[in-house]
Every structure is written in structure tokens, then in C-alpha cells.
Amino acid sequence: MTEAQRRALARLWPRYGVALGDAPLVPAVLFRRAAPVILEIGFGNGDALVAAAASQPDHDFLGVEVHRPGVGSLLLKLADAGIENVRVIVADANDVLARLTPGTLQGVHLFFPDPWPKKRHHKRRLLQPAFAARLREVLAPGGYLHCATDWEEYAAHMLAVLEATPGFVNAAGAGRYTERPASRPMTRFERRGQAEGRPVRDLVFRRMEPSAR
Ligand SMILES: C[S@@+](CC[C@H](N)C(=O)[O-])C[C@H]1O[C@@H](n2cnc3c(N)ncnc32)[C@H](O)[C@@H]1O
């Protein structure tokens, strides 16, 4: 972590940071208002999160990341842009999902999760059947999950896992990827994928309304 990031963490954590305890996470308490909530998992240096929060001031954004240096960088960007509709949690996404009440979220962003390309490491990938089922559970009916990856084989795995998760419906139609939405900003990982000749796949799944089940 750079000295600037360390100072940013100390100064800005009280404004944006949320300590994860054993209690349920209640967004209306964290944000002091009732607004649609989007969770971004593994926000890295926070570029996509800052862009989304700035363009949707009527939504609240929870960012979760395990890698602390990225957090300092995000906090600096939030403060520089005067953004108030973001709260940040340094924790494993699984622990955050475990503390959310079912039906809480309007959306989940999972952009360029670690691909773990070696076959023996595939089990470390975040998007697995149990994780997908939990995501579906914490989404409100009609809420969405948006994933993006530049690893073709991980994209195929995501598609298979999400299509096999009861209660999720592929917004692009069965077996299809979604067109890259203009709302998803370009990040370092996407630029690197493109530079190395890997196309990016976007997947958007919606949680079905209860009546549609
Ligand atoms: C390849 S990076 C992508 C970062 C960012 N989403 C982007 O597009 O630039 C994956 C990120 O996920 C984070 N991550 C990995 N496992 C995680 C977990 N279990 N919970 C939260 N974040 C996680 C990593 O620390 C890393 O910053």
C-alpha cells in the first residue's frame, strides 16, 4: 500500500467504511435512507464502482473487496468526487452475502473476478453453484446479476452455473451472452484482456418474480 493510500484509509474510513460484525447488514441503516442497493463484489481499484455511483445518485452502492490497497485508492476517488452513496466493506464476499437479508439487493456486479485459469484451481473461482444460489437469494425479485469476464472458459462456466440456478433467468436468452452495456466502464482488466486478444463476455441474469416461478 502506498503512503497516500494508507493515509486515505485512516482519514476516510469513518466516512465510507463498514466494519463487518456478526449482525445482519441493513443497507437502510448504513445509508440512512431507503433506496435501491447495488453490491459490487471485488471492485479492485474501484473505477467501475465510482462511475456507477456517480451516474446513479438515487441508488446506494455497497463495495466489497479483500485487497486493502485497492480500498485506499477507491476512498480517495470517492472523496475527490464528493460521492456519498457508497459504503465499503473489506471482507470476503461470502461473509457479506451471509449477512444480507434475502431480497435486499436490486443488483450485483461481478466484474472480472479472478479467473484461476489452471484446472486444478477452478474450485477457487467465486462463481460456483452455491455462490450463485446465494446471490439469487439476496436479490429482490426482478433484481439483476451482471458478470463480466475476459476468460472465455470462465464465461462458459458462469453461463452454465447461472442457467442451472433455479430462479435466475438469462436476460439475453438461453445460452447467450449480453451485449456489452455502455454503463459498464472500461477497467484495467478489460483493457488488458483486449490487448492480449481475449474478448470480454457480459452476462446479465434476473431474479424471477415469485409469480413467474
Ligand atoms: C481481477 S480483479 C478485478 C477487479 C475489478 N473488478 C476490475 O474489473 O478492475 C478481482 C478482484 O476480486 C477481489 N476478490 C477476490 N476474491 C474475493 C472475495 N472472496 N471477496 C471479495 N473480493 C474478492 C480481488 O482482490 C481482486 O481485486
The quaternary state of the protein chains shown equals: single chain
Pairing-aware structural class of the strands and helices?
Answer: alpha/beta
Helix content: 25-40%
E-strand count: 7
Rg = 17 Å
Shape category: globular
Corresponding CATH superfamily of the largest domain: Vaccinia Virus protein VP39
CATH topology of the largest domain: Rossmann fold
- How many domains in all? 2
- Residue stretches low in confidence (pLDDT < 50, at least 5 long) are none
CATH class of the largest domain: Alpha Beta
Question: What amount of the residues lies in strands?
Answer: 15-25%
Instruction: Measure the end-to-end span.
Output: 47 Å
Please, how many helices?
8
CATH architecture designation of the largest domain: 3-Layer(aba) Sandwich
Q: In what order do the strands lie side by side in the largest sheet? A: 3-2-1-4-5-7-6
Structural features, described:
The structure is a single chain. This protein has two domains: 1-19 and 27-34 and 43-99, Vaccinia Virus protein VP39 (Rossmann fold), CATH 3.40.50.150; 105-213, Vaccinia Virus protein VP39 (Rossmann fold), CATH 3.40.50.150. The chain is 37% helix and 21% strand. It contains eight helices and seven strands. The longest helix has 14 residues, at 3-16. It binds S-adenosylmethionine (SAM). S-adenosylmethionine binds next to strand 2 and helix 8. Residues 41-44, 48, 64-67, 70, 92-93, 111-114, 126, 187-189 line the site of S-adenosylmethionine.
